[in-house]
Amino acid sequence: MPLDERIITKAIIDRYFEKIRGILNLDAAIVGAGPAGLVAGYCLASAGKKVAVFERKLSVGGGMWGGGMLFNEIVVQEEACHVLEELGVSTRLYQEGYYTADAVETASTLTSRCVKAGAPIFNALSVEDVVMRPEGIVGLVVNWTAVNMAGLHVDPLAIRARAVIDATGHDTEVVSVVQKKVPGRLKTPSGSLEGEKSMWSDEAERLTLENTRDVFPGLFVAGMAANATFGGPRMGPIFGGMLLSGKKVAELVFAYLESLP
Ligand code: 48H
Ligand code: FE2
């Protein structure tokens, strides 16, 4: 059968618009497709919630691909291995308590499981603001990353979501926007973003999980963004905290959604 460029073009346009029309009213919008965001997307979609992930870059997976300093292996502590096993990532015991996984296998498998569970990922889309109402955050404001990179003055579009998860890693971009728009109102000790502290792997992994929580009405933080929001230290290329944080935020958001009228 001869191929027709017009049909190829129409197929892409039709399918993309079908996909994006389907996510204009979400239960949960996840910002950032790193390990925390991907696990959260997988868990919430598996639990039947309508969820989508928005990623600024063309590539998804966040800081996982390069392992530590471009040595593409990641370390995962024993307590978090079950998350990788559940998602089908192979782990290898290194020494008691410490496991390793191939960084490329981990990034690609988490991505695949997230999408196949029903959480589509919109890449090359940057979240630049939130939709705010007196009761809290009710959505995201998004634009093409290419528009931002080109420095074009083009207004964004908006997506409704009953809950938003900031999983933007070190940048903590959604929380930063909220802090700028409504200063001093975050549920942190100072009311503002506390900022990430220097490396202390053990404390950081513990605190990542503790700091995974709501930070403003309708807004939850996960992964590295949780640590930056509440002032936890960084941990280096150990990823168990990110995976467990993704799982925990999904549980918190699920319970929050169930509690809404
Ligand atoms: C859309 C955005 C925006 C935006 C950012 O950095 P990530 O991998 O984040 P986590 O928290 O899942 O994992 C952190 C981990 O990778 C890490 O850096 C560790 C463990 N560091 C320890 C240390 O000591 O350094 O992924 C975040 C994703 C990225 O892909 C960004 O491109 C994306 O979020 N993102 N997407 N709109 N405004 N901002
Ligand atoms: Fe990092």
Automatic annotation (TrEMBL):
Coiled coil regions in record: none
GO molecular function: iron ion binding; pentosyltransferase activity
Pathway(s) per entry: Cofactor biosynthesis; thiamine diphosphate biosynthesis
Chemical reaction(s) catalysed: hydrogen sulfide + glycine + NAD(+) = ADP-5-ethyl-4-methylthiazole-2-carboxylate + nicotinamide + 3 H2O + H(+)
Enzyme class of the recorded protein, top EC level: transferase
Binding site for Fe cation: 155, 170
Record-listed glycine binding positions: 234
Protein EC: 2.4.2.59
Cofactor requirements of the protein: Fe(2+)
Record carries keyword Oxidoreductase: no
Swiss-Prot/TrEMBL keywords: Iron, Metal-binding, NAD, Thiamine biosynthesis, Transferase
Binding residues for NAD(+): 36, 55-56, 63, 127, 153-155, 224
The protein's assembly and partners: Homooctamer; tetramer of dimers.
HAMAP family, per database record: Thi4
Role description: Involved in the biosynthesis of the thiazole moiety of thiamine. Catalyzes the conversion of NAD and glycine to adenosine diphosphate 5-(2-hydroxyethyl)-4-methylthiazole-2-carboxylate (ADT), an adenylated thiazole intermediate, using free sulfide as a source of sulfur.
Protein name as annotated: Thiamine thiazole synthase
Species assigned in the record: Desulfosoma caldarium
Name of the gene encoding the protein in the UniProt record: thi4
